What does this fold into?
Amino acid sequence: MNETTSAPASPAQAPRKTSTSDGRGTPRPPSGAEPTVKQRLAGLLQRQGVLAVLLTVVIVASFIYPTFATLDNARGVTVQASFLAVVALGMTMVIITGGIDLSVGSVFALGGVLAAWASQWGLLPALLVPLVACAAIGLLNGFLIARAGMAPFIVTLATLLAARGILLAFTDEGATTYLVPKGSAFAELGQGSVWGFGYPILIALLLFGGGGLLLQRTSFGQTLFAVGGSSDAATLMGLPVARTKILVYTLSGLLAGLAGALNAARLSSGVTIIGVGMELDAISAVVIGGTLLIGGAGSISGTLWGVLLLAVIQNLINQIGSLNSSYQSVVSGGFLIVVVVAQRYLARSRRST
It folds into this structure.
């Protein structure tokens, strides 16, 4: 699936651009100029480079560590990656619009605690309570950013702290841990499986499939790219810029809450210390997957490959045994720097004639 795209062309009243887009989120030469082989290769690497890296790492690791290429290990890796994937899906849409959401880690943890607390009344409350609460936080983010004109970094940093504060107050500074009833339908949602693959994996895949269709096949998806490409031009085109930003931040909060609820069902409890730094992992996965931090271009499938690459790196560190988990941050940071530099080089190659 290759749904990367970019903002639609502006109408006559919008500022004219010196180059057009190839429909995959990368610029191409002016009309009438055929792209060269170098430009085509640069575009392909920019869109699918992370998948090539992921496949290379998996193949090499399979030869070095026999336990890596087992079905049980694959299930473990994908289950752990599914929670970050759901969070990163919302982050992708936010970044495509040119924004950022630093609150998702705290919202993820808050969603898990609320889900565990509400699970005593059944499956529906265990899902609805965290989804409504976390979507409300996302709605607040979107309103302050889109209507009040505040910077996304400041707003979401504030809600990061606020959500963590609400979490600590709700759990008596972490002294109270809410447990999910054993054998409940909610616990089954996090621990059950189909053909050996857990429900969180299937839910994440369904959400990514829906996200890809949303971006590629709906006017809302095209509006996201237009807003990220140029908010002023999108306004001149008559697009609902403020409403779009509010919706994507609300969706980001909702997905973070859903991921937290699924994680609570998996762990059978609402853990208060999780989610710290998760927003950075989500941003890393999105950028490594090819979505530009400046907005206007991105890929749902690229984000999925980015999440899996980070999960595989963590698993390889565990396979080595002599390294602790802190090395994942070092490797992830290295990948992020390389990807950002590569994106700039490839974009420059695409523009060259």
In short: Strands lie at 5-6, 193-194, 197-198, 297-298. The radius of gyration is 21 Å. Residues 208 and 300 are 7 Å apart (CA to CA).
